[in-house]
Design a protein that fits this description.
The protein has about 280 residues and is an alpha+beta fold. The protein has 11 helices and 9 strands.
Length: about 280
């Protein structure tokens, strides 16, 4: 029998959980990860699926463009720290029904575990990202990136007030997220409100900051999505360090320099955030 854990989708998923844990972004059961599998991923994993899938669970949200899809997901209340040592207990694969409204577990999440509490949020955002990227985006990642969270205490909670210092704090940032980042005000996690507010932003952005909570990022694959979160957090860390010196900022990357980066790297910067 195929070892499902040796398939590229599962290997990549588990590695990303471990990468996030090693960064310190997943204290206790913090954070969650979902991946929309390709047909090839599903066929490679299918021999390990349960002969009798478990019961359907309605999500309270319907996304027709995700009907029949399969997702790998972290489990509710599970720790990223434990994914690598016991994947079948801490993550699982769910199938979405033909209406795009319910999931059932076909592999993993053993001993009564269920998908992450943020699954409906991930699901709604997968729907948006699949649509706006013509099916390219497959990963949604939520982490408690320390310095991004710290900045939500001292910066005004607008997309512009976050995007500008992040672009200015590391030269690669305008290339990695030229559209900027969105900002969601503080909200109760796991609910429909935060799901909706985030999905509005994900029409435009690859990533959204959750105030006093963390980061929500999307991408086509594990490398790109983790890289995006890592880049945003690194830039936030630099800005936090700069603010922590207590010194006046004598120089930064000026808007014309941001435009020059965009021109040379062939990306379109969100002009709304430039002076
Ligand atoms: O899984 O991070 O946002 C716990 C969380 C909820
Ligand atoms: Zn969280």
């Amino acid at each position: 029998m195929t070892d499902i854990l040796k398939t590229p989708a599962l290997e990549g998923f588990i590695r990303m959980c471990d990468d996030g844990w090693l960064q310190g972004w997943h204290e206790r059961n913090g954070g969650n990860l979902t991946y929309r599998m390709t047909d090839a991923d599903v066929e490679a994993a299918r021999p390990a699926f349960a002969p009798e899938p478990r019961e359907w669970h309605e999500m309270g949200v319907t996304c027709e463009n995700l009907a029949g899809e399969y997702f790998i997901t972290t489990g509710s209340g599970k720790y990223f720290r434990n994914v690598q040592i016991a994947p079948e207990k801490n993550i699982g694969i769910v199938e979405i029904n033909e209406a795009g409204s319910a999931w059932r577990i076909v592999w993993g999440l053993e001993d009564g575990a269920v998908p992450t509490s943020e699954f409906p949020t991930h699901f709604m955002n997968h729907s948006v990202r699949k649509r706006v990227t013509d099916g390219a985006n497959r990963v949604i990642y939520h982490c408690h990136a320390t310095n991004v969270i710290a900045l939500t205490y001292v910066l005004p909670l607008t997309d512009r007030d976050f995007t500008r210092p992040l672009w200015q704090s590391a030269t690669e940032c305008p290339v990695v997220f030229p559209e900027g980042v969105g900002v969601v005000p503080w909200m109760v996690p796991g609910g429909v409100e935060i799901a909706k507010a985030t999905s509005v932003l994900m029409e435009t952005y690859q990533a959204a900051v959750w105030s006093q909570h963390g980061l929500f990022a999307s991408g086509p694959d594990f490398d790109t999505t983790f890289g995006l979160a890592h880049t945003i957090e690194k830039s936030a860390e630099i800005y936090v360090k700069v603010l922590s010196t207590g010194q006046p900022i004598l120089q930064t990357i000026e808007d014309d320099s941001l435009r020059a980066i965009a021109r040379d790297f062939g990306v379109q910067l969100n002009e709304a955030f430039l002076d």
